[in-house]
Amino acid sequence: MSALTIACYVLIFIELSKASGASFLSQAENAFLKVPSNDSARDHLKFIASEPHMAGTAGDLKMAEYVANQFRSFGIDANIEGFDALLTYPISRALQLETLEGSEALWKADLEEDQLSEDETSSTEWRRKSFFCICSIR
């Protein structure tokens, strides 16, 4: 019997036990069973993607606070820790395949994401930026 089959049997057993009102699960097992659903995960992702949250901006702090608060609501201790970061803002950017001599670009990547009419979050100015970031924990 594979580990996956055993895991499926365990999950079925737990679900049946929950349905019957059995209370033999540990606190950790009960916490595990409260994991968010696909729908709530989609809602969280939609919120996080709803506005720019570039490192060090107000949007970044807002998202960090949102995630920390969600973890706390699941009973997980969460803190926001600051750190120093060197974040460069590009003057120009390119990704291309050149000849060995470097005299001709054989292929050039489009480094801009498409704007989608059905996704209001795809029109942010940050979609046209490329970054290189170096971080160190204080």
Average residue pLDDT: 75
* Assembly level: single chain
Which secondary-structure class do the elements indicate? alpha+beta
The helicity comes to 25-40%
SSE pattern, N- to C-terminal = HHHHEEEE
What is the radius of gyration computed over CA atoms, rounded to a whole number of angstroms?
Answer: 23 Å
List how many beta strands DSSP finds: 4
Number of domains: 2
Spatially, the strands of the biggest sheet line up as: 1-4
Please outline the major beta sheet.
2 strands, antiparallel
Q: How many angstroms separate the termini?
A: 48 Å
- The shape, in one word, is elongated
What proportion of the residues form beta strands (DSSP E)? 5-15%
Low-confidence regions = none
Number of helical regions: 4
Can you tell me about this structure?
The chain is of the alpha+beta class. The protein folds into 2 domains: 1-35, no CATH class; 36-137, no CATH class. 36% of the residues lie in helices and 12% in strands. The strands form 2 sheets. Strands 1-4 form a two-stranded antiparallel sheet. Strands 2-3 form a two-stranded antiparallel ribbon. The radius of gyration is 23 Å and the shape is elongated. The termini are far apart. The mean pLDDT is 75.
Features:
2 domains; single chain; 138 residues; 4 helices; two-stranded antiparallel sheet; two-stranded antiparallel ribbon
In short:
With 138 residues, this protein is an alpha+beta fold. 36% of the residues lie in helices and 12% in strands. It has 2 domains: 1-35, no CATH class; 36-137, no CATH class.
